Amino acid sequence: MVPRIVDNLVLVLAGQAGQGIQSIETILSFLLKRSGYNYFSTSELMSRVRGGINSTELRVSARPIAGFIDRIDILIPLHNDGIGHLQKRITPATIVIGEKDKIDYEDIVDVQFTQIAKEIGNAIYSNTVAAGFICGLLKVELDFCQEFIIEYFSDKSEDIQNKNRQAITRGHELGKDFSNIDITIEKSSLVKEQLLLDGADAISLGALAGGCNYTCGYPMSPATGVLQNMASYSKDFDIIVEQVEDEVGVINMTLGAWYAGARAMTTTSGGGLALMSEGISLCGVMESPLVIHLAQRPGPATGLATRTEQGDLNLALYSGHGDFPRIILAPGSLADGFTLTQKAFNLAEKYQVPVFILTDQYYVNSKYNTPGFDMGSLKIEKHLIETKADYQRYSFTEQGISPRGIPGYGQGNVCSGSNEHDESGHITENPELRVKMVDKRLNKLELIKPEIIPPKFKGNDNYKILVVSWGSTYHIVSEAVEALGRDDIATLHYSWIYPFPEDSIEYFEQADQVIIIENNAISHFAQLIKLSTAYVVKDKILKYNGRCFSVEEVQTEIEKFIEREGRS
Q1: For 130-155, what is each residue's pLDDT tens digit?
Q2: What is the mean pLDDT of the chain?
Q3: Which of 27, 53, 49 is nearest to 41 (CA)?
Q4: Which CATH superfamily is domain 4-192 in?
Q5: What is the CATH number of domain 198-370?
Q6: Over the stretch 494-519, which tens digit does the pLDDT of each residue have?
Q7: 454-564: what fold?
Q8: Residue 400 CB: number of other CB atoms within 10 A?
Q9: pLDDT score of 1
Q10: How far apart are alpha carbons 288 and 97 in whole angstroms?
Q11: 385 with 412: CB under 8 angstroms?
Q12: Could you tell me the pTM of the whole model?
């Protein structure tokens, strides 16, 4: 009997770094989305330029999808080691398609991508053949594929364009006639008009909308995509982008840009933020705005450089010596990434504090279609004043925020440094003044509270079980709980992390059972909940092997906790 897919196809490409998996994915993402298919993809990568084995999962669905799942309907291994690498995910229902003379798998369906490419002129065209094959499977119009591939290779010679056109045509013919699986997935005209972005795009566009005009960083996976995006935007917008020699220079240059009046951001990962720690403390005493995109990856030290983990929440919460306030945000969706990053610049400037945007490798590398972002309510809020001759940078005010001036805008002297200071910014060791300055800075936590965005609640108001998550696990957890199909389970997702939304503890108190899900070993967010509210979350689903959760995994683990409590 021929397997039939009618709603949700999971296709995985596997091969060595350098074999072109990402090229295939890029071509398919545009073709499938523009054809009206809901699309999601995410990759898992080894930390090497060539060799090793990487894989990319593509989901194509009749409904919006944005979470990783374990199931593989079709596997296309471009290298023999791809079979062993994904062995635990391959089932008797998985259709493996590849070159039989290269892939050691008994039930492989032989499709000679390389041979076809050689007939066209060069083995290099095998990736385009494979992309065409998948488009044929999914009944994407051939004319559309041909037009797109010419556009995609428009910067190449006419000969290369024509051969890629031949390659996608030959592949499409094979896929269209492929009889080992029946795929019928409904398309949607609405999808065609939507955005196709990954997490790095969402953060970068949010920064652009927030008025960011200066970005600097030191390339560090998985944060580099944001730095690259901002560099590309600088060709069309008034943005200065610099690659700095190290992260110590990065943080100081970012602070210097704010001091001069720019709206600045840096993007880094955990190891980079560790080097920035002293500069973050400098930000605290200077009461400078600061926006830091922290794309988390597993530590300690270099750890797993290209893998994912939610392991730097405590680092963001406690980085920098001494006591001073901060704001921590952690988007769950692409829309969150855009709106929270835009808001981060306004928050940083208004309250003169560092604002952290926490993502991770899974978030920044996941790509899917999403409706256009709401731009109507967005605005760039500036809080600079034109200084007078008697200006004091750190004056005590009734509202608790010292007016912020910048050099050259007005008559005043803008004195700021790393030592404790008086209202004018000059060094002081006066004990009474020291206490007043510390209290002034810390009181901003109270001033920030009206800005707090409450967590997203989904479910029946009469729930008995509450599943809590934060950051990048949003879509995975939502899909898993939906698959359980139980009215007594609700979800609560946090994208505003700190200051913790204390009022939300009411959701916890109503539940008979609270389960928290985190991609780390010690449950950072549960620790923060306890610190902020004294509420102790007992049931934890934790993962810290460098891989993201899968929908099935979360579903299974929740069921185990429910069964243990006798709530089946």
Answers
A1: 999 999 999 999 999 999 999 999 99
A2: 96
A3: 27
A4: Pyruvate-ferredoxin oxidoreductase, PFOR, domain III (3.40.920.10)
A5: 3.40.50.970
A6: 999 999 999 999 999 999 999 999 99
A7: Rossmann fold (3.40.50)
A8: 14
A9: 65
A10: 56
A11: no
A12: 0.97
